[in-house]
Each structure stands twice: as C-alpha cells, then as structure tokens.
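Supplementary Methods S3. Complex input for the NAP-bound model.
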Amino acid sequence: MKVLKKQNKTALVTGATSGIGLELAKLFAQDGYDLVIVSRKQDALDKTKEKLEKWGGNITTISKDLFMPESAFELYEEVTSKGITVTILVNAAGQGYYGEFINTDIRRELSIINLNVCSLVTLTKLFANDMVKNKDGKILNLSSVASKTPGPFQSVYHASKAFVQSFTEAIREEVKDKGIVVTALLPGMTNTDFFNKAGMQEAKSVKEGEMADPAEVAKDGYKALMAGDDKVVSGFKNKMRVVMSNILSDSMLAGNMYNRQKPESHTEADKSTKEKTEMTTMAHKKQGLNKIVNKKSQPVLKAIVHKKDELNKAMYRKAKPVLKSIMHKKDEVGKVMRKKAKPVLKGIVHKKEELSKTVHNKAKPAMKTVAQKKALLHKIMRKKHKPAMKTMAHRKSSPVLVKH
Ligand SMILES: NC(=O)c1ccc[n+]([C@@H]2O[C@H](COP(=O)([O-])OP(=O)(O)OC[C@H]3O[C@@H](n4cnc5c(N)ncnc54)[C@H](OP(=O)(O)O)[C@@H]3O)[C@@H](O)[C@H]2O)c1
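Predicted complex, serialized as structure tokens:
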C-alpha cells in the first residue's frame, strides 16, 4: 500500500511502538512522511518499522530510554548526525505511575518526571531551534485531560501533564509568529498499554470507565496539528470534563478524582470502615439514649408503681364493704331460695312416685298377657319343628356316602 504523495519531510515520534504514538506514526506514514520512531525496545521498533514501511516512507528507528535525562540530547545528536531534518516533532512517549504518594517509589516518580517533562522539554528546545531557523515546523505534545485536574493516586503524573499543558501553551505563544505550530493533544482514558505500565488495573476509573480508541484520539491530534490549533480535547465526554474543570474548585476536582481513581479494594475498605463506624456510632447513641431514658423514666416509673399500689389499696378499701354486703345478700338469697324450694321439691318427688306406681299398676295386666302369649308361641314352635330337628340330628351322627 503506497502513498499517493511523498512529503519529503520527516516526523519524529517518540513512543511510536504502541498506543497513541503508534497510531499517530501510522497517520504520518499514510500521508507520505518519512519517520524517525523512538522507544526503548529495539525489537518493538523493528516490528513497528515493518508496519509503517508499507506506505513507502523512510523509517528510521532509534532506541532510547527517555527516563534518562541525557537520552533526549543523545537522540537529537543521533538524528542530526544522520542528516535528518525533523519538521514535525511528536512527543508521545509518556508514562503514569499509580499509587498513594506516601507509599510510591520516589526513584520511579523522578523517572516519570524525566520522561514526561524533562525529555519533552529538551526535545522541544533542540528541535524547535532548528524549526525556527528553517521557519518551518510543527510540534505535537501529548498532554492529557489529567492536566486539568489534580490527580490523587496519580499525583506526579497529573502534575507532569499540567506542566506539559502550561509549557505547550506558553511556547506556542512565543513561536507562533515564527512559522511554528505548537499543539497540545488532550486525550481522556484511552485503550492502550498505559494503564498496565502504570499499575492502574485496580483503579475504579479503569475498571468501570469507558476507554477511547487510540486511532480516533490520534486522528483528533493529527487534524488539530495540521490545522494549526492550539489544543484539542479528544472526545465529547472529555470536552465536558474539561469544561467542568474550569468551573469547579481545585479541591472539588481533587475530591472527585480521589473517588474515581481510588483502588477498588480501597472502595470496599472505605465502605466497610464507614459501615463499621456508623454501626459503632449508632450503638453508642443507642446506649446513651437508653441511659438518659432510664435515668429520666425511673422516678416516673416508681411514681406510677406507687400510685398503682395506692389505687389498689383505695379500691380494696372501698370495695370491701360492698363485697361483704354482696356475699351477705348471696347467703340470704340462698336461704330464702332453699326455704321456698323445699316444699316444691318435696311435692315433685311425691308426684313422681305416685306416677310410677300408677304406670306400674296399669301396665301389669298387659305385661302378663304379653308374657303368656310369648310362652304359648314357644310351645307351638317346638311342637311343629320337633320331627325336622330329629332328622337333622340323625344325619349329623351317620357317615356320609360318596358316589364315584
Ligand atoms: N492512554 C491514556 O489513557 C492516555 C490518556 C491521556 C494521555 N496519554 C498520554 O499519551 C501518551 C502515549 O501513551 P499511550 O497511552 O499510547 O501509552 P503506551 O501504549 O504505553 O505507549 C507508550 C509509548 O511510549 C514508549 N515509552 C515508554 N516509556 C519510555 C521511555 N522511558 N523511553 C522511551 N520511550 C518510552 C513506549 O515504548 P517502550 O515501552 O517500548 O519504551 C510506547 O511506545 C503518553 O504521554 C500518555 O501520558 C495517555
């Protein structure tokens, strides 16, 4: 796949073997630029060179560790010694480092400052001088939306990007009348190896956040640089974030970032610590409240019990004579009842006896007749069935004959 138009111009891209830097390098290659690509690992550079060569430009690889302050100077020397004039400089190499500042490694943080700040400043100075002399040149610095907010858990990284942003805007103003364009590209979270290198996998924002496509981010940066813009924030959400960062106070932004960037384990720990604290506070409050209630209610309760006793006593006192008279009346009634009922009961018993006698007397002849008739019936039955009974008794005693 060859390019339509060769530029005969060279773009130098640091961090060109991966992520946004690689995508930018591709765009330059597609547009017919020759390239100097820079990163630490030669094998990665060789692979990238292979990818980029298909567009037909000259690709030079230079392996440099830009963590080292001297590397930027060496890089410049190597490029010029090869007779290459850099018309476009892209400072894409950069790294983050995740963690609570009190626990992180200061050596690594100083290296991050060397890479993100010192090397970028050095390369910008050295190549910008040549560009001014040639009255031609463009510089694209990889800033970040991180430059707009303080970044708890990435304090050094955010600060380094704030430096890049401020520095880029300042020198842009200085060189804008000298035919040089200086542009800042501000991506938000982009799907690259950045977060692995930074050890950020546990960050809430990385676990839950949406990531931009590095190819899209690179296109935004490329377009802005070619248009001569001062900066471009890549992506609508990030644009909104930057607008908000201009409105909110730094402490609010820092608090918000703290929540977005804290590790998930931190979130759980925070939650359980918060819950525990809330429960302890509630238990304490309940205990305190109980004590107050006990203290205040005890005399009231005592008074209630006392009043109840008094009332019972008064009731008992008032009810006693009433109860006594009731019992007395009950006894009297009982006596009267018994006296009045006695002759009535006697009369009833007498009448019951008379009635029994009358019934017995009247039923007696009828009963006799029934008994006589029953005895007669038995006699007749016995006489009629006697011969049949005899035959049956005889059959039962004689053996049975079986015919074969
Ligand atoms: N990804 C994001 O969410 C994001 C957001 C905003 C801004 N940015 C910025 O965009 C830039 C590119 O990052 P990326 O996301 O594309 O990361 P990346 O995929 O990790 O790419 C980083 C590139 O820089 C090179 N590099 C790293 N350390 C270096 C060193 N000490 N010396 C020389 N080269 C080095 C890497 O190659 P080697 O490791 O082989 O050296 C690689 O080519 C960075 O400046 C970053 O701060 C990224």
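The domain at 10-262 is CATH 3.40.50.720 (Rossmann fold). The pocket of NAP is lined by residues 14-21, 39-41, 44, 64-67, 92-95, 115, 142, 144, 187, 189-190, 192-194, 197 (CB under 6 Å).
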